[in-house]
Amino acid sequence: MTEITIRPLAQSDHADWRRLWTAYLTFYETKLPDEVYDITWKRLFTEGEFEPKGFIATLDGKAVGLTHYLYHRSCWSLVNNCYLQDLFADPNVRGKGVGAALIKAVQDEAGKIGVKNVYWMTHETNATARRLYDHVARRTGFIEYDLL
User: Fold this and answer.
1) How far apart are CA 88 and CA 56, in angstroms?
2) CA–CA dist 77, 117 (Å, integer)
3) Separation CA 42–CA 79 (nearest Å)
4) How far apart are the C-alpha atoms of 38 and 50, rounded to whole Å?
5) DSSP single-letter state for residue 93
6) Residue 55: exposed, middle, or buried by beta-carbon count in 10 A (0-12, 13-18, 19+)?
């Protein structure tokens, strides 16, 4: 079996990152203006405790997955929490461990700075992702609300 490689995003990943993030947004029937792509890419490489970060997954030398995550303060803890904001694996490699490897990479990176709480959301209809999430994490039972 081919090994999945997970590594931090690099400036040279821009084209692959854009392709994968566009596919993720398309899955959720969302489009964002180029300005959001541009500022997000810039933020991924901006130093700062609360700036977003990212990993890319490769398989056979091809970029096949990505994740974005960020840290934020909590009133319930002395240390930050980690929000895994976006997670995507190319449909052609689903079931091969890419998603689980990306989640583990975020968990390991957060653990390096003492952050134990890594959490995320998914849409209730995303059955494929939920099978993975039910296997690697606990479901909290919380329901999200927003004021968009």
Assistant:
1) 10
2) 10
3) 26
4) 18
5) G
6) buried
